[in-house]
Design goal:
With about 280 residues, the chain is α+β, with helices and mostly antiparallel strands. α2 runs antiparallel to α3.
Length: about 280
């Protein structure tokens, strides 16, 4: 369950009276390898017995206890003392290679040496144990999309804790039309959109479907009906330049696709994120 050197590998600790001790975070029983040794057999045999007879013991608790106890959990037999402890040796795998989702979502993706969502560069884990978050199946799907199907920065939709990362800023809107007009004038991205629409003179595409046309004063025409667009207050998005696009009952947050715009000849490329589920689509003007 570790997420850094101290939590993954343990640390020296002075116990009562200065007794040298070693403190360890929990060893998660969701992913481990056992060598075929007598010590391993002794440990798992005791685990099997405890799981069959101890109603209120969590399997992971017993798994940790049997690794580190200096005495045995076996009950003494008549005339005999308890047998020797399991005596297994532990080796903790590199937490950056064999990851859990606390390390991935809370730490790795914010480390610029390991992850850059905009360019699609990422440390590629050997495995990821999805264990720290309530949305386990949904996060697992996202990991498959990113690391097996090649979808760039798919994991960005999730908060490092619980829920979607963009839910609050995605839904933020100007308080009134006066604020909305002022934000439109200040936004570089809004100016780029209006300039591009003026130069091209024709609607752009939304997810490859032609007919997407943002206009002056927040007017919006789409293949699915009219809507509204504008600028999300920068204080709600950490000072970033973000656009909102609302139509057909759905709300979206839009940002510039810097990578494609750097290679594009004239076209303006944008990326939209739907607020309800994080679905991303490309916009080309």
């Amino acid at each position: 369950d570790g997420w850094d050197d101290v939590s993954a590998y343990g640390f020296a600790y002075a116990g009562a009276g200065g007794t040298p001790m070693r403190r360890l975070a929990a060893r998660n029983s969701g992913l481990f390898y056992l060598a075929a040794t007598k010590e391993s057999l002794r440990m798992v045999s005791r685990l099997a017995e405890r799981m069959a007879t101890e109603r209120n013991t969590w399997d992971q608790t017993a798994y940790n206890e049997e690794q580190v106890w200096m005495w045995t959990s076996e009950a003494p037999t008549a005339g005999n003392r308890r047998s020797v402890p399991a005596g297994v040796s532990q080796r903790v795998m590199n937490y950056a290679c064999f990851q859990n989702t606390k390390y991935l979502f809370r730490y790795m993706r914010y480390d610029p040496e390991l992850y850059d969502g905009a360019s699609g560069r990422s440390l590629r884990p050997i495995s990821v144990h999805v264990n720290y978050h309530p949305e386990k199946p949904q996060r697992m799907v996202t990991l498959i999309e990113q690391y097996l199907k090649g979808e760039r920065d798919a994991i960005s939709k999730w908060n490092w804790g619980e829920g979607m990362a963009f839910a609050k800023p995605c839904l933020a809107r100007p308080k009134n039309s006066k604020e909305g007009d002022a934000l439109m004038e200040e936004s570089e991205l809004a100016r780029q959109i209006l300039k591009r629409m003026s130069v091209s003179g024709e609607p752009g595409t939304w997810a490859g479907i032609k007919g997407f046309a943002p206009g002056e004063k927040g007017a919006l025409v789409t293949p699915w009906g009219d809507g509204k667009w504008g600028v999300i207050p920068p204080k709600e998005v950490d000072g970033d330049d973000r656009i909102f696009v609302d139509f057909s009952g759905a709300k979206h947050m839009v940002h510039s696709d810097q990578d494609r715009n750097g290679r594009s000849s004239g076209e303006l490329h944008l990326i939209s994120t739907r607020c309800t589920d994080g679905e991303k689509v490309d916009i080309v003007l």
